[in-house]
């Protein structure tokens, strides 16, 4: 696990032991002088770096801010977020046939997805920068989180959504939390291109996962999984399986593990294998892994019922591909039917997730069937968003309501049929 070294020296103007470094050319930048999303020299992705990396003993409290020692600030605009359940799923575990299977349900965050972890940190940075408008492109969840956290902070929010391709619950959230919603005649990747241009023009502060501080919040998923799993099993999971869209979580979890290794709190051999899952109709990361590419090829035409991961140009690919390879993981594409089936299976065991989230389960099943995942592995599947985010998908995947007369005897008769 040597790619993307964390070693760099702070620039002169580094604030309180934190700075930004380009993952391509190594240039370092002061973090809070002005909004910066990419390297001014080579356009590479930026990553937050710290003077010191904490060990588990440095963490205290609950939720995202438990990990303040690994974040750029002590606290932030919080609703609060993180501290999500690591569900047991005994029937699914037996069916898949692994040593242990847990489901880390990020749908239990305040706005119903993992984006809240990134937003609590990202909006804190926005306050530090003194910006007056926050913006994002979104397949839905980022917009809901941005609207809620921006609203809480009292800052104007603007979201660009691919018209007709965002689940109803997410649009409702962004609307009610007060975001200005622009529906764009184009896919998510086109929306992100426009928002990035607006941000570069100084029209808004961009809070997609291109923003390195979003990923600082999201890396706490990795810390939390390791701590909770260790507490229950006295060992770390072998593998973490996660849905991949813009590839922010893959990059963030990899960073969490590299930081712990750097701090001497985790052996390289203990780092879980990061295993990404995409829908067949939007699988540029899988293509890049299978073909040994250093970056993804942009897919112009993407389609999947898992609208949250309907993404053809994962902005974090250059961070996430080394994460998958460097941990000995892999990536796999799954059919929409397998995603829906996995969503139903999880729901029947009490865990309600949106379709994109269920991709992790569908991917695990596929990798077990192919023998890529062994039966003696400890696995954690990440489920990223709540079932109610996409009520239409849930209704379509679930049982149909049965109309009955307003009469007890008739209902008993109906139940006996
Ligand atoms: C519910 C859900 N799952 C998974 C993803 C993919 O996560 P990432 O972009 O971090 O790969 C997203 C958004 O991209 C999402 O909204
Ligand atoms: N699924 C995402 C897509 C944008 O991802 P981001 O992590 O880069 O903000 C969404 O919910 O919009």
UniProtKB/TrEMBL annotation:
- Report the InterPro entries cross-referenced here: Ser/Thr_Dehydratase, Ser/Thr_deHydtase_PyrdxlP-BS, Thr_synthase-like, Thr_Synthase_bac/arc, TrpB-like_PALP, TrpB-like_PALP_sf
Keywords of this entry: Amino-acid biosynthesis, Lyase, Pyridoxal phosphate, Threonine biosynthesis
CDD domains, per database record: Thr-synth_1
Task: Supply the SUPFAM superfamilies for this chain.
Answer: Tryptophan synthase beta subunit-like PLP-dependent enzymes (SSF53686)
Annotated Tryptophan synthase beta chain-like PALP domain residues: 77-385
Pathway(s): Amino-acid biosynthesis; L-threonine biosynthesis; L-threonine from L-aspartate: step 5/5
What EC identifiers does the entry list?
4.2.3.1
Purpose of the protein: Catalyzes the gamma-elimination of phosphate from L-phosphohomoserine and the beta-addition of water to produce L-threonine.
Q: What is this protein called?
A: Threonine synthase
Q: Which organism is it from?
A: Halococcus hamelinensis 100A6
